[in-house]
Amino acid sequence: MKYFIANWKMYVGLEKSRALAMQYAGLVLPQDVTGVICPTTLSFTEVSRAVAGTNWQLGAQNVSWTPEGAYTGAVSAEFFREAGARYTLVGHSERRYIFGETDHDVRKKIMAALSVGLTPILCVGETADDLASGKRQYRLKKQLMLALEDLPNADRVFIAYEPVWAIHGIGSGIACLPADVADIHNWIKEEVKQYGISEPTIFYGGSVNAGNCAAYLTLPNVHGVVTGTASLHPAEVKSILSFLATC
Ligand code: PEP
């Protein structure tokens, strides 16, 4: 199984999300490909309606770690599950570095997601400063350890390697070299064994598009891609799915 994750971030409001979802509904997902759309919380139900009857699945971009109560502005994992989510991104770099989410918050969100049956997609990645100071592995090791050490059912957590510097907007928009992605994914595979994850599902994210997706999706430990900018363009999505059909 390969995965295509579409993170629409805060790029599209209600009307545009509905229109985009209808275009996605017209794109056929190849066999053995799971497609997950992560719309804004506001658009979630509309997108769900637009893709009903197709194989597209839904994910949250973020969840609260609290189940319910007096938490203004928060939306719980359980509320997303009730609305039809099967997945949730957790610890996306924009949450970590723009909104100040800590490794501790990330851990609590993973636990909340698992407790209601959502599959958490744990995003990890080094910043440009980490990379420049030779701390790439240090950062990844720390993020993985604080999220996964002694975590019951850690093998139900998916991992997305998303170098912060490679993401459009928060980073440079220059994708990570496929050779480096290959090395890091192999390293992550070994690293998470200590947390009881023997066959991890690992995605690459960071400026993936129709032109470069093949270089990542043909690597042995790359089980899918997370796309932000490209996911807003149905023609790009269609091309990536066509390539996935050949994998
Ligand atoms: C992301 O933010 O998860 C992402 C992969 O974004 P982009 O494809 O725009 O770099």
From TrEMBL:
It is an enzyme of class 5 (isomerase). One of its GO terms (molecular function) is triose-phosphate isomerase activity. It catalyses: D-glyceraldehyde 3-phosphate = dihydroxyacetone phosphate. This is Triosephosphate isomerase. It comes from the Bacteria. The keyword 4Fe-4S does not apply. The keyword rRNA processing does not apply. Pathway: Carbohydrate degradation; glycolysis; D-glyceraldehyde 3-phosphate from glycerone phosphate: step 1/1; Carbohydrate biosynthesis; gluconeogenesis. Its main location: cytoplasm. SUPFAM superfamilies: Triosephosphate isomerase (TIM). Keywords: Cytoplasm, Gluconeogenesis, Glycolysis, Isomerase. It is found in: Cytoplasm.
